[in-house]
Structures are given as structure tokens and as C-alpha cells.
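Morning!

This is the sequence you dropped in the shared folder:
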Amino acid sequence: MFKRILIANRGECAIRVIRACSELGIESVAVYSKPDSHALHVKKADQAILIGPDPVKSYLNIHRIVDIALKTKCDAIHPGYGFLSENPEFAEAVVNAGITYIGPSAKAIAGMGSKTAARTAMLAAGVPCIPGTEASLKDADEALSTAREMGYPVMLKAAAGGGGRGIRRCDSDQEVIRNYEMTQREALAAFGNGELFMEKCIIEPRHIEFQILADSHGNCVHLFERDCSIQRRNQKLIEIAPSNYISQELRDKMGKVAIQAAKAVDYVNAGTVEFLVDKNHDFYFMEMNTRLQVEHTITEAITGVDIVTQQIRIAAGEKLKFTQDDITLKGHAIEFRINAEDPQNGFFPTPGRITRYFSPGGPGVRVDGCVYSGYEIPPHYDSMCAKLTIWGPTWRHTVTRSQRALNEYDIRGVKTTLAFYRNIVKSDVFMGGQFDTGFMEKYPEFLEYKPYEAREDIAAAVAVAIAAHAGL
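The structure's back. C-alpha cells below.
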């Protein structure tokens, strides 16, 4: 087992890996940019090294990160998610330096990172894929002719994309022409690659993904599925596990295909195979994420498997200590991404100082956070403050527990998504548990709420009552 691991990430992701290291008796080394000097992951790690002054480029400096790992005598590097986590050049540089990369091989990252190459590999392996182009589109003219041949609606997608970026639906010739250059620019800015491909648009699908674990000894299992259908502009907001939409028969079938997909590219470590499921319950491969997912917490909740610990053990060369038959589903789980955003203003980021922070607790409640009272949320990064994960023995119990936990959660000083989620979970439609990717468009009324932060009158009344009772 490793003695020391460098975490090439920040925020709650870095803290999650630090905790896993601590439980395994492994020392952790954090890196941070100058604006992150007071970040929580810096305080939690055994060592913290300033990586550079730039808020973003510092975390993307491959040579600097590897150099720090060598100087601090780290055995391995964990990339987390975001930043360099799906960069094959980083994985290769780590290995070439004689350090273990906690993740799949550079070859697997590159192969699954190209959506067109991934489609080709999956088709060859017999994995069902969404009808689409086999190679990247040459130009807007080819995109237009391809769309006409497929029939509208179609999806323009970044070939090197991920995280819901570089994707646009087109319902007409005019939209293909208008969106082609726009999507290309977005893809180039986000991924450094402007290549696009096209797929047939699946109407009102469910976005369902399977978590897999594969060791270097040929063993591969899945940890069941997560339903990530509640999204806004292809960005996930709320995830649940398991899905309330698919049957056990379909679950078993999709799980086997997810393992089939991983084995087709000799995948090792943790990964996620993502599918779209249509109204007829037919499913199609969409992409494979070659890293830890933000929403891994709900899978841990329903299976009892510590995914980050397994990542580290697999990277150390250990065999999986369980088989598919050993993994069972227990209850239901929901993850809420608590972001510093204003949902009533187009989910615009709201960086600033947190003046009050109180997280919920009690049975079945887990908080993975990176903020605290007095912390200044910087404007340079993803706006996530924390992830709230709720587990319950039944779906109804999980929803009612979510209502309780969200009401307990209190973050002041910046606007967050908390009030928005409170409005969703108290609704009959959410209790019904049937979601597709058009959920937000169908129910715009969820954005109609009185912000929890505006209830200062209640807090003041409570304070007065307490003072009176104490005789002050």
C-alpha cells in the first residue's frame, strides 16, 4: 500500500480523497493556488504545497504537480474530478515519473475521451449506441446534410466533450447552421478541441449511468445505477440511486453491458458508463467517464462500497475482495449539489463571504463540503459549496428525510440552490419519482419560491424569545 498520496485537486473533491487516505493510514499532500490559501482542503491534508499564483492554471500545471509529488516523495497521485482528471498526458507524465496514477491508463482515458473513438469501440464490442456519425464532422455543410439524413431533432456534440458542455439540440436546418460554429467555439474553449459529431436526439430520455470497478487482475463489477435526469442545460442538479424508472430485469441487462463496455477497452479502476434510456426502455451508450464522479456518494450509500478507497486499493495492485453477487442494493439515496448560485437569476454564480454556515445531521444524512462560516467563496472555480447525500430504506422515507435535512441546512451571505431544492422535494411530482431530462423545462414553477435567506424575521423572533426566556 502507498505511504503518501498527492491529490491534484481542490475543494470537497480533495477533502474526500484526504479522508480515504486517512482511513487507510496514508499521508496526504494537498496542492493549492494562492487564492485557495484558506481553503479547507489545505487545512485538512497532512501537507499542503503552494502550486502557483494563478487560480486555474496552477491546477493544470502537469510538470509542477509531478515535480511536487517527487519532492514530497509521494507514491501515487489521485486526480479527483475536473481539472486534469481526464487528461491522458497527465496520466502518462505521472507514470513516466515512476509514480502510480490512481485511475485508468492514459490509453483508456484517451480512447474514451474521444466520443467518436468511444462510439467506434462500443459498436465493435456490441454495445448499443445512439445512431450517429462514426467520425467527426468536417464542416457545417456536412452537419446540415447529416441532420437531414437522420431526421430532426439531432444533437451536435463535442467529440472531446464531457460534463454536459459542448452539446446543443437542433430541430431545424436553421438551428444546425446557427449552432454549429457556436458549439465548435464552446468545445474549443472547454476542451481545446473543436471537433464535433452528431447523434439522433432521443426524446425525453432518462440519463442513467452505471458505476463500475475493475482491477488489474481481470475482475470487473458494477455498483448499480444512478439516475441523473434532473438537469439544467445538461448540468446535473439532483441525482438518485437506484433509478425508479427501470425494472430489475433491465437493471441486470444494463449492468452486464456496462461491464462489457469496460472490458472492451481493458479498463482498470473506477469508471462510469453513461446511457440514455428512451420511453420504450431501450438504452443506448452515451459516454464513459474515466474518473471519479461527483455523484459517487449515492452509490456508496446504497451499496456500502467506499469507491475512493477501492480506487486506491486497485491502483496499489490489489484484487477486488468482492464479486458481483456480493453487491446488493440497500434502500434509496439522493444527492443535492449545493451550489453558490441564484436559481432565480439563471443560476448565476454568487461568490462571496459566507456569514453563517450550519449543516444538517442525523440518520442517513451525509455532507461533503468545502466551506465554513467566514469562508470567502472565490469566483474562479465551480460554484459547488457542498454535496448533501440522503439515504433512506424506502423512496418515500428518503424524500421526507431530504425535506428535513434541507430545512436544517443554513448557509447565509451568498445565495445558494438550497431554497430551490426545498421547493422541489416538497412537491408531489418529486415524490412520484419519475424524471426525464426535460424535468426543469416541464416544471418552471420550482423556481417560484421565497428565498430561505429572506427569513431573517424568523431568526430574529427566535433570538428575542431565547433572550426573554433567559431573562436577558
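Headline: The longest helix spans residues 173-191.

More detail when I'm at my desk.
O.
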